[in-house]
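Try it yourself: sequence plus manganese (II) ion, in.
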Amino acid sequence: MKFELPELPYAYDFLEPVIDEKTMEIHHSKHHATYVNNLNAALEKYPEIDFKCPGQLMRNINDIPADIKQAVINNGGGHVNHSLFWKSLTSPDTSKFEGDIKEKIDSDLGGYDKFVELFTAAATTRFGSGWAWLVINKDGKLEVVSTLNQDSPLMENKRPLLGLDVWEHAYYLNYQNRRPDYIKEFFRIINWDVVNDRLEHAKNCECSR
Ligand code: MN
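Structure, out:
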């Protein structure tokens, strides 16, 4: 099977001014598209590898043949991480932090302010390129973690609920070297409805949400 670049669920300017239109256009139509193309190219040699979604591919990364494993980590991870990222975002200051995720952040992480502190630290201190994540670990508890490059939390049996891309390509046009400013603004565009939905369906296939 071939993986395809998913359409964005909104226009390129929808996240303005937090993430500018040009950054979104390049990020989605060039960067994400390249991960999808490279993933398909890596898998071409092994037509018997047939996962129904990229998330399933990442959870079973240790079954991937050694000669393409790193390419699948980089590009399969790139595909699944970005797909999840786009859907987690909404227009600035329109989503309310409420519902089951609020209760779980209170109980597992010590409240919203603590979550912001942990997530900011994870995103800021990730050296070079990578991601910050809110995940459910295998014990069903929330954790804030970061990953290098395009590594997916799914490879460690963690279910991502929310991720932030901290590669320079995600923010450089607008924020240049000011990654901390980009991270601070990110909290305005989190779509908590989507995060709640992922929490509710955390045991199902992560690629449908
Ligand atoms: Mn990216």
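One thing you can check immediately is this: The beta strands are 130-136, 142-148, 159-165.
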